[in-house]
Amino acid sequence: MRIKLRFTSNDGFLVLPVQYNYLLQSMIYRNLERSLADWLHEEGFRYYKRKFKLFTFSRLFGKFRREGDNLVYTGQVWFKIGSPYTKLLESLATHLVKAHEITINRQKCVLDALEVEMKKEFKGPQLIKMLSPMTIYSTLKDAEGKKKTYYYAPWEKEFEKLILENLRKKVLVFNGNEDIPSLENAWIKPVKVNKKNLHVIKFKNTVIKAWSGIYELHLPEPYMSMAYYGGLGSKNSQGFGMWEVVDEGNDNLQECSKNERWEEIG
Predict the structure, then answer these.
(1) For residue 195, how many other CB atoms are within 10 A of its CB?
(2) N or C: which end of the chain has fewer CB within 10 A?
(3) Domain carrying residue 243
């Protein structure tokens, strides 16, 4: 399931720090049923020691200007949220429609529209464009035994391998059994990606390297649906890994193309 939220600030402008992922995530948790929010935050879907939240969201889209360390949005702003766990988005949608407003960074916004996307069906390879950058990493140890996080680039072989392995775990934990298809003939390949698509984003005190751009994605079901609704790569619930099919020719992609600047900490 995916929903799209369109909203406008009561003040006519919305001021957010450049690093706003945490603010959007917090807004989502605040507008869920309390017991659901607590379970999702503390437990989620467990795969051994790993915990998956199984939701993702896009960057913000709309007219904006940068003023120092802040972004100032004017007019209507929108973003998408997706999850294979429909209960999560049903809870979010119900609360927001009743409230008819969204509060982000202590600023109240009018909820102009909440759109529920039709169920998507996929056949064959898909050309996709990231709506929020994708990240995958390994935790390594240096010569002194200290842990170090290494973020992979799309042209490194480990990038595809780890993306697919991450996706396999999500499907396993969501389906609750081991009876799932092989990923032997699956792939994700960069099509239009260069160093300008690298984004260095700060989430709380963690610096994350992630990649936007256009990719070719080929996955059997149920992996493709999981990737679409739950996100590709790691840290999806922090605002990473959401994508859209390039050749849909819909308004979303047209709006995205008008707002190609992605702000980062540099």
Answers:
(1) 7
(2) C
(3) 126-258
